[in-house]
Amino acid sequence: YRALGHEVVIVTGDKDLMQLVDDETYLLDELRAARNGLEELIDAQEVKNQLGVWPHQVVDMLALAGDSSDNIPGIAGIGKKTAVELIEEFGPLEKILEMAPLVKQNSRREKLIDGHTMALLSKKLVTIDRDVAIDCHMSDLRYDGIDQVKTRELFTELDFFRLLNDKQ
After folding, report:
1. Across the strands, what pairs with 143?
2. String of DSSP letters for 118-134
3. 155 Cβ contact partners less than 8 Å away, ≥ 6 residues apart
């Protein structure tokens, strides 16, 4: 829908979706907004502020550091801070893995070499497929208010009698 000139706002607290942020796509973390009492759209600069990388680098950072909330293993012993440092020094994951034998710190070099396969798998797991056909039109997404008949039927079926009375 960006092609139609619409801004896109993804409502989520899931950081792996930060990879989708660009000049026309933003994130809104409603839980964080409710806690802070401030509703802010997350743009590319805010992704950089929060994660230390730009949106196009999020998959590489998560492939290196992993994401336990989404069961992304990453490379054992490589955390977010180290992942950001490696991305800043070498670039994307594939380049980091290619340059691994030249990494000065012994421990870091060994982790990268040993974790090569897991890092590539992690990148594949965390990368959101952007080329998905969606059979949906803008008119299908339009909110026209509550369908009173369907709501009454559902509330009756679920025995939500107090809500039924409140609606009247």
Report:
1. none
2. HHHHHHHHHPPP-----
3. 161, 163, 164, 167
Phi and psi at residue 94, to the nearest 5°: -60, -40
End-to-end distance of the chain based on CA atoms, in angstroms? 38
- For residue range 40-79, what is the model confidence (pLDDT) as tens digits? 899 999 999 999 999 999 999 999 999 998 999 999 999 9
Cβ-based neighbours of 125, under 8 Å, separated by 6 or more: 70, 72
73 near 83, Cβ under 8 Å?
no
- CA 167 to mean position of chain CA atoms: 37
Q: Beta-strand (E) ranges in the chain?
A: 8-11, 25-28
pTM exceeds 0.90: no
